[in-house]
Structure formats: structure tokens, C-alpha cells
Design goal:
- It is a single chain.
- Helices cover about 25% and strands about 30% of the residues.
- The protein has about 210 residues and is α/β, with parallel strands linked by helices.
- The strands form three sheets. Strands 10-9-8-11-12 form a five-stranded parallel β-sheet. It has a four-stranded antiparallel β-sheet with strand order 2-3-6-7, with helices on one face. Strands 1-5-4 form a three-stranded mixed β-sheet, with no helix packed on it.
Length: about 210
């Protein structure tokens, strides 16, 4: 039997932040009408039923052809998904691969048993744009680098948990792109586990 999460309202850290943009990054609002949406196993649910229309916020970046691509959205699947990942994190230091909207940082910062959160993000435009919306918490450190370069070149720090969220998939994503993402998830998960064999590695989408 399909498990369905029913919601009548949806509030995130971005709900009250208005639409805004830099030259290459922007926040945009959209409406999720009443209906069913996928949630892909988060907290044991396959679908979420939106019983009243909700507003969600998307983080988008500009492509070379001036079109906009959505990198992350604070919809129920991602909001509850980041909450679930944060609950699964072990006490101790956490490494996060991919900044996005920083949703998971809000949840991690509510945990008093996490003394340090290091975030690796390759795109300086994302870092500059999102930083003012992040929790102002001294435990957060952002490193501007490719996660794969970070794994290869950094010292093996004593992280207790590694959380990886690096990929973008949409309804229109091709089968080829989906296969590439699936393979990349497996590779990055394996590399992180090899680098930090004592740590719990959590990969969003796996």
C-alpha cells in the first residue's frame, strides 16, 4: 500500500524571503496546487498530498544561453528529505557536499551534538548569493572547491558523517542523464567512504 503524507501548510526558512536575483543566480516562487507529488521514500512515504495550495521557493542559475536551471527547491520532498538526513547524521563533525539552498544546515544547526559543519561547494556565485540566508552559526565553514578535488587533495579529517547532495534531476531529464547521475552517486559515495571509512556516508537520492 502506498504511504501518503498529507499536508495543509508548508513553511520553510525561505517562505518569507521574497524573490530576488543577482546576475546569475535567483530565487523564484511557484505554486504547488492541490494534488499528489512524489516524495520518494522520505520518512517512509512515496507521495505527499497537498491539501491546500502551497508556495515553494526555487534556487536557479543562469545557463550560457540565458535560460534558467533549477538547482534546488524547498518543496516538501526536499524539505522533509533534508530533515531526515540531518536526523540520520551521527553525533560529531559533519561534511556536506553541495551547498544548494543550505536547507540541511538549518536542521543540522539545531543539533547540539554536532560541533562542526564543513560545506564544500564549487560555485562561488552560489556561495555569495546564498550565504546571507544561511544560519549565522560559527560551526559552519564553507570551502569553495569541487567535492572530488576535496576528496583527493584534503587531509582525512575526523568527520563522523558525510552528506552528499550534488545532482540535479527534473521531470524532463533524459534517460542518459539519469544514468550518469546514478553512476556519479555510486562513485562519489564510494570515494567518500574510502576517504572516511569510519564515517556514515549519506547520499541524497540513493
Amino acid at each position: 500500500m502506498t504511504q501518503v503524507l498529507e499536508i495543509t501548510e508548508h513553511q520553510t526558512v525561505y517562505t518569507r524571503i521574497p524573490e530576488q536575483a543577482s546576475e546569475v543566480v535567483r530565487l523564484r516562487k511557484s505554486l504547488y496546487k492541490r494534488g499528489y507529488y512524489r516524495i520518494e521514500g522520505v520518512d517512509g512515504y512515496e507521495l505527499v498530498q497537498v491539501k491546500k495550495s502551497i508556495i515553494v521557493t526555487s534556487l536557479q542559475v543562469k545557463n550560457p544561453d540565458n535560460s534558467w536551471m533549477t538547482l534546488m527547491v524547498d518543496d516538501p520532498m526536499h524539505w522533509y528529505g533534508m530533515a531526515e538526513l540531518s536526523r540520520l547524521a551521527e553525533p560529531g563533525k559533519v561534511l556536506v557536499a553541495g551547498l544548494g539552498m543550505g536547507l540541511i544546515l538549518d536542521f543540522l544547526c539545531h543539533r547540539s551534538d554536532i560541533p562542526e559543519i564543513e560545506v564544500v561547494e564549487i560555485d562561488p556565485a552560489i556561495i555569495d548569493f546564498i550565504s546571507s540566508f544561511l544560519p549565522q552559526d560559527p560551526r559552519i565553514k564553507i570551502v569553495r572547491e569541487s567535492f572530488f578535488t576535496y576528496l583527493l587533495n584534503s587531509d582525512a579529517k575526523d568527520f563522523n558523517t558525510v552528506i552528499i547532495d550534488l545532482w540535479v534531476l527534473g521531470e524532463s531529464s533524459s534517460l542518459e542523464h539519469r544514468d550518469w547521475v546514478a553512476n556519479s552517486m555510486i562513485v562519489s559515495h564510494s570515494l567518500a567512504q574510502a576517504k572516511y571509512p569510519w564515517a556514515k556516508v549519506l547520499t541524497w537520492g540513493m
